[in-house]
């Protein structure tokens, strides 16, 4: 049941598995790891007497997932992530009643306020900052407390480095408030082995939060901006509307 609900929600959002949905973020990896799912008093008594078996982790995870999906569908708002242009198109609809018009105008005003707020935030993208060893302290270590810095350590001629650099450059277009930089690996760390490149270092307030070594940390050579966004959102340095980890479609070729 939860699969059909989630599928219907994706269709209404024009998305597919691993794409953005205008809905609450669901931490799938956390399912089944928290407190026990709520049960009735009668069920608890039957389990204490051994009449009913204890729920398995899989059962608890499924119940939690159904509850989260129900909540997501119930709270789904098709206007939540519309921009000003999309809201203007909706407002041009002659079939709107006064209540719908007031609601859309309120969303439009909120979007304009958000845009004004974003203009006041420091922006570093789109694009990647290329830094040398002499710039590391100023650009990374001494970055303001509220600025996240993501540094790619790369080596020349590495195809894997090119893949991750391209993904970061694409991500910088939608996440300009995160400083994304590229540095030659041996400039950052003397004698850093090429075999560990690409390496991505995530900083905030001069402290390293996370390091990713190699493309295996993402999606291998199929890594794209969405894969990087998912992992960086898990670190907590950026927001995301991805509802679950991006999935790759694999095609079996018969030779």
UniProtKB/TrEMBL annotation:
GO cellular component: cytoplasm
InterPro entries according to UniProt: Phosducin-like_chap/apop_reg, Phosducin_thioredoxin-like_dom, Thioredoxin-like_sf
Phosducin domain ranges (all copies): 97-238
Any Gene Ontology biological process: protein folding
Family: Belongs to the phosducin family.
UniProt protein name: Phosducin domain-containing protein
Species of provenance: Compsopogon caeruleus
């Amino acid at each position: 049941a939860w699969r059909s609900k989630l599928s219907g929600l994706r269709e209404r959002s024009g998305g597919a598995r691993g794409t953005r949905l205008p809905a609450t973020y669901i931490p799938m990896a956390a399912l089944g790891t928290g407190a026990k799912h709520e049960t009735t008093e009668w069920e608890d008594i039957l389990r204490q007497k051994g009449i009913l078996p204890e729920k398995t982790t899989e059962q608890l995870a499924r119940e939690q997932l159904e509850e989260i999906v129900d909540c997501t569908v119930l709270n789904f708002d098709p206007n939540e992530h519309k921009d000003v242009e999309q809201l203007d198109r909706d407002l041009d609809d002659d079939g709107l009643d006064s209540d719908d018009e007031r609601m859309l105008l309120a969303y439009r005003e909120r979007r304009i306020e958000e845009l004004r707020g974003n203009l006041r935030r420091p922006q570093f993208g789109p694009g990647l900052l290329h830094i040398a060893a002499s710039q590391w302290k100023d650009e990374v270590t001494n970055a303001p407390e509220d600025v996240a810095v993501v540094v790619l350590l790369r080596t020349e001629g590495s195809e894997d480095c090119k893949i991750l650099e391209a993904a970061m450059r694409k991500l910088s277009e939608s996440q300009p408030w995160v400083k994304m930089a590229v540095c030659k690996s041996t400039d950052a760390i003397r004698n850093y082995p090429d075999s560990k490149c690409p390496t991505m270092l995530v900083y905030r307030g001069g402290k390293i939060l996370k390091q990713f070594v190699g493309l295996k940390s993402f999606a291998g050579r199929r890594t794209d901006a969405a894969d990087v966004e998912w992992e960086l959102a898990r670190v907590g340095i950026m927001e995301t509307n991805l509802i679950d980890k991006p999935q790759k479609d694999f095609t079996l070729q018969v030779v």
